[in-house]
Amino acid sequence: MSFKTVLDKLVYSGLLIEKEFEVKMIIACMLSKGHVLLEGVPGVAKTSMAKAVAKLLSLSFKRIQMTPDLLPMDVIGGYIYDQRKGEFIFREGPIFTNILLVDEINRASPRTQSALLEAMQERQVTVEGVTRKLEEPFIVIATQNPVEMEGVFPLPEAQLDRFLAKIDTGYPSTKGFKEMLKRIDEIEAGIESLQPVLTRDDVLKAIEQVRSVNVDDSIYDYIVSIVEETRRHVAVKLGGSPRAGIAILRLAKAWAYIDGRSYVIPDDVKAVAVPALSHRIIVKPEYEVEGVTSSRVVEEILKKVPVPKP
Amino acid sequence: MRRIVILIVTLHIMLFVAQLIPYPKVYSYQTTFERHTLGFPYNISSEKILDMLKSLYKNLGNLSQGYTAPIEENVTQNLYNTLNQISDENLKSTLADIANSYALNGSIDRETLLNAVEMATKSNASLSDLLQFLNAVNSLAQAEGYKDIVTASEDTIAKILEKLANINWLQQKSNSASQVPQKIVEVLPRIPQAIESMPSLGVASPQMLAPSMQLPSMSLSIDRGTIILILGITLAIVIIAVLRGAIASLIRKAHGWRGFAGAGGWHTKTFAQPLRKAIENYWRAVKFVESVYMVRKEDSMTHREYLATASGKLKDLGTAFEKITMMYEAARYAHDPRSDVDEESERYLRILTGGKK
User: Fold this and answer.
1) Phi and psi of A70, rounded to 5°?
2) CA of A307: which chain B residue's CA is closest?
3) Could you tell me the pTM of the whole model?
4) Is B334 part of the contact surface with chain A (CB cutoff 8 Å)?
5) Cβ distance A244 to A280 under 8 Å?
6) Contact between chains at A304 and B300 (C-beta distance less than 8 A)
7) What's the fold here for domain A213-304?
């Protein structure tokens, strides 16, 4: 069984219509030991995607709905007094899971956001001086609504950088939407009845195998050229950092692995460049008002930077 | 764009030839010019123009009070020119005095001009002389800004013109009736005559205003042989326009094959180090597809992107190019050491190029 099976079961079977890229990117992030930020309006199957992936990989899944009054303790857990034992015991928060869906991350207060993002980075939580490691694989799939601006705490650039990839999820096409409406009962039942196709150990093994995916020297050059080009682009205020390059490399390796290859090709780099770079680039305000987005800048750069030759 | 140009050219030639056949002698003749001053009514009557001019003179007269006009060279010259055309001795001597005085002093007094106009009204000179004399006095009065004299002279001219319309009066004034119309033609300005013949609607042509002015015309005498030649060229253009796709494809293929066949050792010029066979074959295949099928591989295009783009045009040979691309990928990025990668690549390149590698 490979990760292609996951895609077969979810996408090619028609359960998640037109979500191939998103599902593949979530798996790539997981295999790269990163986290993913899904940006999109409500009702575009973000939760369904996360749930379905967790089910197929026999992984534990939890969901937090972020609100402004949510405390760090509500996410990472805390000590409570056990009357029977007469002592304080640690109660784990929802972060102790394999796949954590954080809905509307920008609704949480900066304090809670920081606690969560720190745990994401360190892959461990420290409460009252005691450090607890989070179980691998661990992936946070956070969502945020780009439309609502009131009552939200937008993630600072430094916090955004903690996500390996940002995916813009949009509405399905007219044809896909119609197909979804026709088969909605079948789709819902299909997601509910999903059976695991891979075990947790398979996932952990895959994470190890991704590390050994072969990368030609020219691919490194290609990644460096792309990241450096983001710093030279006329519309960019802040270009990609070395961490952005690392993100591209890791995602490209995972992407190649999911495709069943043991080597990276320029196509892998191109496929992951936009999700890996778009949230790490700051566009100049004068270009932003003209409708230039960071995704568009990266797409332009990909059309400009030459691929390795010969 | 190119097709549109070809079609337009063809159409023009066809129309031109179609014009030639029934009329071997062709005269290019433009009857009207679309010329008209915006805001100025084209069907204005001569009376209206006269009213407007009078009003303008009055205003000019008001503006020029207390102003000494400089000597107008043109006015002086016109006076002397008119002198030569007048035959009546009295009028001639009066006008000579006026002209000399104006030339010497740079101005002329009102009384002299008024007297000249009065003298003209009482004169028995010919109509031609009278009109020319009055016109000269009038232009001088205009130059000097004497609006009353301008009005007086114009009134006199108008009266003379009115009388001209009366044939009985003309007969009384002339011994020979046949000579009068000749004099009228000489003295009457052409423009009012042209205005009368102007269309009620539309734009006046310069020919109407100046009938003597002829537009340039071109005469083409074309023999039968020339017409056949033009028709032949037109037919050739039409054939090229219709079959341009097929012709262009043939030329491209012939050129592409030639370019590809003559590209021996190209890789040594393109790349510094010797390449593995599978990699070299891929770039040869790319060059072949670029030359023969005109599918350019952009620098930013990956090998898989190029395969997707080229496959549509390669049709049956798409599989061969796909295999070559996959062999390239295995050799270039997977560093597959197996020799059959190179051998397979060689085989598919032969299939792709039809053995002309």
Assistant:
1) -70, 135
2) B300
3) 0.61
4) yes
5) yes
6) yes
7) Helicase, Ruva Protein; domain 3 (1.10.8)
